[in-house]
Amino acid sequence: MKPLDALFKPRSVAVVGASRGETSTGVPKLGTAAMRNLLEHGFRGAVHPVNPKESELFGRRCVARVSDIEGHVDVALLVVPAEACMEALRDCAAKGVRAAIVMSSGFAEAGRVQLQDELLALARGSGMRIAGPNTAGFVDFHHPFAATISMVGQMQPFVAGGVAFITQSGALGGSMIGRGMEQGVGFSHWVTTGNQADLTAADYLDHLVDDPHARVFALFLESVSDPPRFLAACQRAALAGKPVLVYKSGASAVGAATSASHTGALAGSHAVFGALCRQYGLIQVDDLAELLPLARTFAWLGSRLDLRQQRARRVGVVSASGGICGVAADECDLAGLQVPELPPARQATIRRLVPEFAAVRNPVDVTGQIRSSATGYQDTVREVLADPAIDAGMLLVTMAAEPRASFYGREISALADAVEKPLVVTWAGPLSLAAQGHPMLGAARVPVFESVRSAARALRAVDDFGAWQRRLGDSPATAGARK
Amino acid sequence: MSRRPPHLLRALDEFEAKQLLATYGVPVVAEARVVGVDAAVDAAREIGYPVVLKGCGEAFAHKTELGLVELDLRNETALREAAARLEARMQMRTGDAHPCGRLLVQRMARGQREFLAGFSRDPVYGPVVTFGLGGMLAEVLAEVALRLAPLSQADAYEMLGQTRAAALLGPVRGWPAVDTGVLVRVLLALSRLALERQDIAAVDINPLVVEGAQPLAVDALVLIDDR
User: Fold this and answer.
1) In a domain, A478, yes or no
2) What is residue A137's predicted lDDT score, i.e. its pLDDT?
3) Do B148 and A223 touch (CB under 8 A)?
4) A476 occurs within a structural domain
């Protein structure tokens, strides 16, 4: 048992502040949301509602305080007002509760530093670990254990997978994880760190590095509260071969000020953070909307390929549109990738597969006529990716209505299984006309993007990760740590 | 530079700063700290002309702005005249009739390529080592690579290649390639210094002049935090 196992994989949970029904504005009460999410997302352990005003909630006996619960309690969820938290926490500690997830707000983020200090002192004194306060989501998708008051709990079912998402902001985190699930991102964990009084992002990362379900880490940070511990955890993730993607706000002075007042923590200098990412092999994402799609890229490509060994610097581009081929060449260049000309022999082979006016140097423009040959498209892509001068493939689909869209969906899915190099897709055409074809790619775990730039940056990130993993061996900081 | 209020920090004089760096293996320009013009002349004879003469003292951290740097002095006459000018300016600066008269006599390093290297302490992340384009325009150009201490050798090599300073490291404009091994040793020395000497808030080596292929610390600032 690792110290935080009880927190992520509890067998019994108390919900302090459990309730029923909605507020006067028709929104579920927090205590209702917490109970509902726990029960509706498959938690298999015991659930004990705690509320002195109720005798029964969600078909379970409701007790007045945690000490009234019969039997052991691993984790307590707190959804009571901040003023009531200390008493409830003391009760939990006396009961021997292993960890508390304090969802209540009104601590350091609201200027009540002393109240938060008391909470921390209780954690230190009792040995009970505390997540939050001011945390909105704490989910282990595989256990499963969904402790959250976020409305994202209304999404059914949760999509389990390999991405562990750690975020400081609850509201934004909830919206991101919801969108992520819509984009097909499967999650292993979702932790909103809140005010990080006791447990910090570094603690969660360090713990989850050893969880086999967590294969890719996506972090959204406003500050780094304990840099040495954080960096040590990042280093452990690197040694485990698990990519750590990070978006950090606070690049602008205004952004930094907003972040600082938001969590009560000091946002560090952004330039130094960028340096830290280079130095410790973190993949810094500078567009928040790219964070989870990029995590999905690592998870999906990683399900077929060993990304620790991977290169993606030299890209083979294939499309039926000359226009987007030019865009792809530009975007690859911008992302620091190359689109090398294929060797003459390879070009000659491809020439036999495509219409005579097609471009075959790379980018390869198969032209719209490719549909006249049933196997031409797939064979062309295979030829491009078979060349030793090519590390990765970028396939661009433009205007494709059904049944053409399904043709692409089928062919590209088959290619992803057949080729042993990273393959990403940009689908630029209208999705409403590709209702069968486009979803085939997600189902086949083929990373598909709407923007060429995002696809190019994804390949760059894959290449950076591979380069970092290869470098790990010769860094004195890690030499010897890796066998 | 350090984010702490500057009044809490004390600068080592330039000579002491470079002595400290030299003990960590940073190549520094040949120089002597002397009192009085005659001693300066003796020192210059030993170092070899042309020399640079600087006013030296904790009060004179910004020598160029104070007019306390006399460059390219080719003989004893030029040195004596320059020394007289410096003494006058130092007296003006301190209001003292005999401002201890410390002078720094330095071999005139010749090199067109100027880099900067140093470290400062970030309030969140701790010591941060810096390398980039140096000289008078360093702050304007802001072409610097940063890394947290401790640095690995690979980190140091990466820093050299990260910014546009990299374009000046190779053989360029008829100059030989810079001895990057020395630059890496300088960066690793700064990393070590940052970790071993917690009382040092910041170090600036600027310029780190490349003479032929060899980097050489020509000016350095070491800020001590006495708290």
Assistant:
1) no
2) 86
3) no
4) no
Query: B152 vs chain A: nearest CA distance in angstroms?
Result: 6
In this complex, the residue of A223, A269, A279 whose CB is nearest that of residue B155 is A279
Q: pLDDT tens digits for B133-160?
A: 988 777 777 788 999 999 999 999 999 9
Mean pLDDT, chain A, whole residue set: 91
Cβ–Cβ contact B199 with A under 8 A: no
Average pLDDT over residues A317-326: 91
Q: How confident is the model at residue A266 (pLDDT cuts 50, 70, 90)?
A: very low
Set of chain B residues whose Cβ sits within 8 Å of the Cβ of A259 = none
Residue in A269, A274, A278 nearest the CB of B122:
A269
The last residue of one of the domains, among A271, A304, A337, is A304
Residue A142 belongs to some domain of the structure? no
The residue ranking higher by pLDDT, B68 or A192, is A192
Determine whether the interchain pair B147/A278 forms a contact, defined as Cβ–Cβ distance below 8 Å.
yes
Find all residues with CB under 8 Å of A31, minimum gap 6, and list them: A15, A17, A18, A19, A20, A51, A79
Domains belonging to chain B, first-starting first, are 6-28+110-225 (3.30.470.20), 31-107 (3.30.1490.20)
Q: Do B122 and A276 touch (CB under 8 A)?
A: no
> Which chain A residues touch B if contact means CB-CB below 8 Å?
223-224, 227-228, 231, 266-269, 271-276, 278-279, 471, 474-477
User: How close A432 comes to chain B (CA, Å)?
Assistant: 44
Q: Is B147 in contact with A231 (Cβ distance < 8 A)?
A: no
Co-location of A182 and A249 in the same domain = yes
Which of chain A's residues have a Cβ under 8 Å away from the Cβ of B128?
A: 272, 275
Instruction: Name the pTM for this structure.
Output: 0.88
Residue A477 resides in a domain: no
